[in-house]
């Protein structure tokens, strides 16, 4: 596989991920994942301690769809949106049909009244299925820099 094509495909997937969340296209968000998959939001200290469960977890695309359903119909939270800034995107290794990719993120939270705050920082640890185009996440671990996780964490990071 051409290295440039691989890097562009990875960049497109990561960019599409942020856009679907930031533009409130959450119903399309699970389509970016293979099935089965792993999606985990975890604090840095818990991740470094080897813990496998976090504040948000899914092991299948169906679980991701359930997450979106609960955001839209069941969870009660103050309306807000995110804006992601992601980079640099680092291709760490390619083994078979899986690319291991790391990137850093900053997420701003925009409340319904327009107040914007820095909501989360951290890094994405991704395993990306590159066997088909477009690529899909087989695993996305969201490692938060802070151990203090805002109770308003409802929307995926």
Q: What tags apply to this protein structure?
A:
25% helix, alpha+beta, 6 strands, Nuclear Transport Factor 2, Chain: A, six-stranded mixed β-sheet, single chain, 157 residues
Count structural domains: 1
Q: How many distinct helices?
A: 3
Strand arrangement within the widest β-sheet reads 2-1-6-5-4-3
Beta-strand content: 35-45%
Question: Which outline best applies?
Answer: globular
Task: Just give the CATH class.
Answer: Alpha Beta
State the secondary-structure class.
Answer: alpha+beta
Write the layout of secondary structure elements.
Layout: H1 3-22, E1 33-43, H2 44-48, E2 56-58, H3 61-74, E3 80-95, E4 98-111, E5 116-129, E6 136-144
Parallel strand pairs: 1-6
Antiparallel strand pairs: 1-2, 3-4, 4-5, 5-6
């Amino acid at each position: 596989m051409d290295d440039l094509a691989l890097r562009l495909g990875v960049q497109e997937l990561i960019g599409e991920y942020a856009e679907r969340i930031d533009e409130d296209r959450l119903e399309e968000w699970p389509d970016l994942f293979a099935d089965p998959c792993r999606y985990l939001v975890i604090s840095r200290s818990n991740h470094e301690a080897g813990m496998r469960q976090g504040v948000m977890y899914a092991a299948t695309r169906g679980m991701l769809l359930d997450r979106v359903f609960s955001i839209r119909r069941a969870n009660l939270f103050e309306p807000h949106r995110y804006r992601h800034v992601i980079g640099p995107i680092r291709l760490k290794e390619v083994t078979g049909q899986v690319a291991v990719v790391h990137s850093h993120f900053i997420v701003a939270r925009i409340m319904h009244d327009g107040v914007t705050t820095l909501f989360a920082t951290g890094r994405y640890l991704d395993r990306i299925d590159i066997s088909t185009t477009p690529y899909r996440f087989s695993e996305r671990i969201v490692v938060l820099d802070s151990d203090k996780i805002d109770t308003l964490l409802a929307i995926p990071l």
